[in-house]
Batch of 2 targets.
Target 1
Amino acid sequence: MPLTDETRQRLIAAAQAVRERAYAPYSRYPVGAALLIADGTIVTGCNVENSSYGATVCAERNAVFTAVGQGRRQFAAIAIVTANAGSPCGICRQVLYEFAPDIVVIMADAAGRVRHEGPLRDLLPLGFGPSDLAEA
Ligand code: THU
């Protein structure tokens, strides 16, 4: 299902808004993520850092885990907003792949300018997923 301009803008706006709530006193790199569910719902997450740095959780994973806790696992797209339209980390790519290997990933900067838009499979080729375990 291709994204409409209106949906893309709504998604990016949601990611911009939740980025304002990021807790990133150590990196000073706030991240906002907005997941588009197949039914049109948007679920958001921000990065939450910790003084024990390894306890930090990324924005994308917070959005995914919130959605799963709401019974939502049909992900169509995710918008990620950072200062420089940064790329999602490898752990978050893996977590997204579990539920939605074909999800469309949008990377945008703080002003909402899109730097990249494309399927997760391009960012995680030959990804490991549930079917790999089934074949074991
Ligand atoms: N971060 C994310 O929220 N998502 C990513 O995909 C990359 C990194 C966060 C983690 C940490 O709070 C800060 O950005 C710097 O790494």
Note: The first helix runs from residue 5 to 19.
Target 2
Amino acid sequence: MNTIINGWFSEICPMWPGMALSVEIEELLYSTKSKFQQIDLYMTKTYGKMLVLDNIIQLTERDEFAYHEMMAHVPLFAHPNPERVLVVGGGDGGILREVARHDCVRQIDWCEIDPAVIEVARRFLPTMAVGFDDPRVRLYMEDGKKFVDDHKQSYDVIIVDSSDPIGPGKALFELPFYKALKASLKQGGVAATQGESFFIHTECVNNLTNITRQLFPVQTYSYMLVPSYPGGHLGICLASLGPELKKPVRPISSAMQQTLDYYNPEIHQASFVLPHFMNKALNPDISTSLAKGKPCGKESSIEVKIVQSVNPLEIKALYRDAGWWKDEYDRDTSFLDTLVCGSTCFAAAFDRGTMVGMGRALSDGVSDAYIQDMVILRQYQKQGIGRRIIQALIHGLTEKKIDWIGLISTPGNQGFYAGMGFRPMEGHTPFVFKGAPEPIDHGSEQ
Ligand code: SPD
């Protein structure tokens, strides 16, 4: 919903409930409804021309440089030799203008779904549309997901300049698109996507970083200041198949530096430094023991080690706390006695001698192992103990030369395991036996 009252445009949107950015308007220069969205172009009092899609501000002439420079130069300078670049979205041309500043780039494929946005930029935003006519640019008017799906292992850098995850941009914030992005990168490729506001869309940012953590060996998050976006900033979700991202790996020429107004090598690195609440949100394993109200002391009072035996009653206490204990187990608890010696590795966490967490691995002792029964007493959770237990198990198993280590993540813990080096096994599905099967065709036998 867009409201213009007394000459002020207010950006009212359910994505930032209870707040709205207002910009004083001089006149509406152009307005149209394309097949995909409502497109409005205003002349504002103090921010120059302002492009609005479906009533959401996409850019103003006064501060667009911050977004476009960072979205383009952070991934491009993180790559040692970006030759083939794909830009998804960005119909205004701002990203193309920045990508075209890199002489090493030989080909810029550009996939934009809405020709009407390109038309508006050509007519009204010449300082952004300059990139359209660079001879290296090839325009594809298609759906971004489909385009990426159709171009496997094709790009050194992919930049996704999307609107918000409502309207035509929604699919660009979802797992299938990120899987396709990954497949479309060449070896050592880098992807950068519009990463929303960490203050206002913490959930969305978490979701994006969980997706990239699951899929990519390197992933991180950076941001830039843009006064005309809600919260005054916008994030970049970055992922790579190799490069470390946080430092530029190529020098910037002084000629190029002079053309820029926001990006420089220092701000490249600084843009990854996040407020601590975001560090905690993006790294679930960071110890929160300093958080208010945690019942037990510092993480350092917890000892995690591989054990050869434990008190079975303590295992029972853990299982009970986790809700795994069934009354019928009380009839014969002897299985607890062999739980430790029946495991290839058993790691336990102790707070001053009391067991507060455990995890164990089962293995043939030669090639592969499965971690299971990871449990931490509720009041000891979110202190990094789970991470230490997994690390102890990995260490114990690799010492036994077992390097294929699998586990089944419980819902919501995928990010935790991904942060420890585990990856989903593409194409595999966990199964559980639910009773004798019907006498039907079983497919191929194993
Ligand atoms: N909340 C608005 C986010 C807009 C991001 N895309 C901007 C497109 C500019 N090329």
Note: Residues 316 and 347 are 15 Å apart (CA to CA).
